[in-house]
Design goal:
- The structure is a single chain.
- This protein is 51% helix and 23% strand.
- By secondary structure, the chain is of the alpha+beta class.
- The protein has 2 domains: 147 residues; 115 residues, Distorted Sandwich (Glucose Permease (Domain IIA)).
- The strands form 2 sheets. Strands 1, 4, 5, 6, 7, 8, 9, 10, 11 and 12 form a 10-stranded antiparallel beta sheet that branches. Strands 2-3 form a two-stranded antiparallel sheet.
- A hairpin with a 3-residue loop joins strand 7 and strand 8.
- It is flat.
- The relative contact order is 0.10.
Length: 277
């Protein structure tokens, strides 16, 4: 066989893995781009729907306020009912506004990540992106993805307890607890710790509600201590989305607890939420 064809076959064999790796990388980029674009579309629809709800609740609260100011109800009992109705309307408006802002923030992050990936792919296809800049762009996109998927604390407040053995005061017995408990303020917004789907909303015997949600990677969160909930079973939630309001425990304190489980086993709740005591 002539020498030139042998050299051509050798170069082709050496180039084939590189071409295959490049094609695989491009396919991964396109798949990631499609997922980001779809998530952006869903978030945009959710933001618009949430904004419409917030506008409707704002209008309703305004009408209640005007009714009270105009004094249509002359007797004190009716005025008290109007005040309670206005308080509930303002609470619902605040919840809708918090949800709209959370969705808008998530949408901005997804748009930024998609645009960065799009620019990197276009520049690479045109040969305008050096290898070091391409690697930096990929690291930035990966970092943005990790930030999007990280777990958040459900409320603002001080951590009172972490998983471990705790002594039950009435019985003086040590019991194993798997939750992180936060001291917060009454009616503080309670947020989803991660994106997922609400599986159950349960009323607790000691009062209040618990929300059980499923997340990526087989993770399940159980958030308790809510006096009001804004979601129901089957609802999709985003990281940081308001799912309810903090209530009071039997001793009068406003506490919210969260447990994380993975495949029916307790997960490292304190570590995943970055709580240290």
């Amino acid at each position: 066989m002539p020498r030139a064809p042998l050299l051509f076959l050798l170069l082709l064999c050496l180039a084939t893995p590189v071409l295959a790796a490049t094609a695989a990388t491009e396919d991964d980029d396109l798949a990631l781009f499609d997922r980001l674009a779809e998530r952006e579309r869903v978030l945009d629809a959710q933001r618009n729907a949430s904004a419409d709800i917030a506008r409707q609740r704002a209008l309703f609260a305004y009408r209640l306020l005007r009714r009270r100011d105009l004094g249509f109800a002359a007797n004190p009992e009716a005025r008290l009912e109007d005040a309670r109705a206005l308080e509930l309307a303002l609470m619902a408006l605040r919840r809708a506004s918090d949800e709209t802002r959370a969705i808008a923030r998530e949408l901005e992050r997804v748009e930024s990540e998609r645009e960065a990936l799009e620019n990197a792919v276009v520049a690479q296809s045109l040969g305008h992106l050096p290898a070091d800049q391409e690697a930096a762009a990929r690291k930035k996109a990966a970092r943005a993805g990790r930030e999007r998927d990280r777990l958040l604390r459900p409320v603002r407040g001080v951590a009172l307890a972490v998983p471990g053995l705790r002594r039950d005061r009435p019985t003086n017995v040590e019991l194993r607890h798997d939750s992180v408990t936060f001291l917060t303020r009454l009616n503080a917004p309670v947020h989803a710790v991660a994106a997922g789907v609400v599986q159950r909303v349960e009323a607790l015997s000691q009062g209040g509600f618990a929300i059980v949600s499923a997340h990526a990677g087989g993770l399940t969160s159980i958030v308790t201590g809510l006096r009001d909930v804004a979601v129901k079973a089957g609802d999709s939630v985003d990281t940081g989305q308001t799912v309810g309001l903090a209530g009071r425990s039997l001793d009068g304190a406003s506490v919210v607890s969260v447990e994380l489980w993975r495949k029916r086993r307790p997960a490292d709740t304190a570590g995943l939420l970055r709580v240290h005591m």
